[in-house]
Design a protein that fits this description.
2 copies of one chain form a homodimer.
Chain A: E1 4-9, H1 20-28, E2 31-35, H2 36-39, E3 49-53, H3 58-70, E4 74-79, H4 88-98, H5 101-105, E5 107-111, H6 116-124, E6 125-126, E7 132-136, H7 144-156, E8 160-164, H8 174-183, E9 191-196, E10 204-209, H9 210-213, E11 222-226, E12 232-236, E13 239-244
Parallel strand pairs in A: 1-4, 1-5, 2-3, 2-4, 6-13, 7-8
Antiparallel strand pairs in A: 8-11, 9-10, 9-11, 12-13
Helix pairs in contact in A: 3-4, 7-8
Chain lengths: 254, 254
């Protein structure tokens, strides 16, 4: 008897963003673990147990799911977006490394999903069309100085930058500070995209510039893309503009 | 009569990686444009025209598809992985910006997909669990000096690095040079993942270290993930190791 732990990416929002592999994994699971609102996105299936937990309890959730799988069950941990990007896959790996030997013997299957920056980029055009990076603004698990250093390095080297976890109730000032750091390297005219709840019925997309971004509201459901010097905006009559970063660099950009 | 241009991400390989939205878009399209081997992955549908083109003809393909949509048709351009990451969405935006006004009036719908780095990361564990970047090693459209500068900046700032387009017949030396640049910043023990054709029946996954990576073969179907100082490898008896980057930074890593 050997269990399996699946870590399943739900994509950005509604079921349209789910892959066939993710649907299949969710159907196969005997038990589902996850943050409550993510579990609510998975259609109920008879005989499938559900174990919702709070957003902040990633490690405890991973351990509970591993214990369950180690009893021989087919268990899925669900994750918004892609489980590998600032989400549950790393928590599961951390728990396995620190846990009993039996957890290392389990079959682990990670099912990728559409991560927020890809969903927001697709709505806006192709802002990630050239070299880019992803930075979490959460300083719960890393020092703020390191985040500032990475923002500065990324802007200086000409990367487009996707900002995950820009704001939470406990972290009200970090986004403003991050935009200030970026403003030291980038022009005020640099295109900025704020995508909130993209893929859900209440989605919003805001296209603005760096010098106007500080006044805009954001929360944990917001993903922000900061353009590079190369990023361009195409105005379209009667339609929202397209934002894209060309594949070609005309000049050394930074 | 108004046409629509969809740019559809097929994900990494087989149909399991396709989202429902992508399937729906492919069904709705009257005409499909794309690189031949990508079109071959889309099931045939009666009455749906297909226009395969060579890998290097992105701009011409985008223009042909836009001309077709501007005649009032529902046209899809297919893209491997995610269309927004070193793929067709930026080519379409470039063509729109340079093209006739009628192209700006078209409805443009970009359907995201699982990009290669997410697929490879999922097979290996959670190497992208912390801040990371994506760099194309192709110097067809940007100067090699800029690529070296970005590699150096990313490694110095502690990003995990996903390398797209590592090698082609016309670009045989770039990967070796890139690994040499990274070796000036990173220990030889830094974990490296080479994923080839991940999501396809002939997929291979190689987990090694930076000091051994130069000898390994790679091609245009290979995606390489270079760990940071924080990236860890969990050995598992009878299973391939898990590679992950913890969410927490124990110390300022670089």
């Amino acid at each position: 008897m050997s269990g399996r732990l699946m870590v399943v990416g739900l994509g950005p929002g509604d079921a349209g963003g789910l892959t066939r592999d993710a649907e299949e994994a969710l159907r196969a699971a005997e038990a589902l673990y996850g943050y409550g609102p993510y579990l609510d996105r998975v259609p109920a299936r008879e005989g499938q147990a559900r174990f919702p937990s709070d957003n902040r309890e990633e490690r405890g959730r991973a351990e509970a799911a591993l214990r369950h799988a180690a009893q021989g069950a087919d268990v899925a941990v669900v994750s918004g977006g892609d489980p590998g990007v600032f989400a549950m896959a790393a928590s599961v790996c951390e728990a396995i490394e620190a846990g009993p030997d039996a957890w290392r013997a389990l079959e682990i299957a990670i099912i990728p999903g559409i991560t927020a920056m890809l969903a927001v980029a697709a709505r806006a055009g192709a802002p990630l069309g050239h070299d880019f990076c992803a930075i979490s603004l959460s300083d719960n698990l890393k020092p703020w100085e390191l985040i500032e250093r990475r923002l500065d390095a990324a802007a200086a080297a000409g990367f487009v930058i996707a900002l995950y976890n820009p704001v939470s109730r406990a972290r009200p000032w970090q986004l403003g500070k991050a935009l200030a750091v970026l403003s030291q390297r980038l022009s005020g005219a640099t295109p900025i995209i704020l995508g909130r709840a993209v893929g859900r019925s209440d989605e919003t997309l805001t296209i603005t510039t760096l010098d106007r971004a500080a006044g805009l509201s954001a929360d944990m459901a917001t993903l922000i893309i900061v353009g590079s010097k190369e990023t361009r905006v195409i105005a379209r009559p009667g339609r929202s503009p397209l934002v894209y970063t060309p594949r070609a660099t005309e000049r050394v950009s930074a």
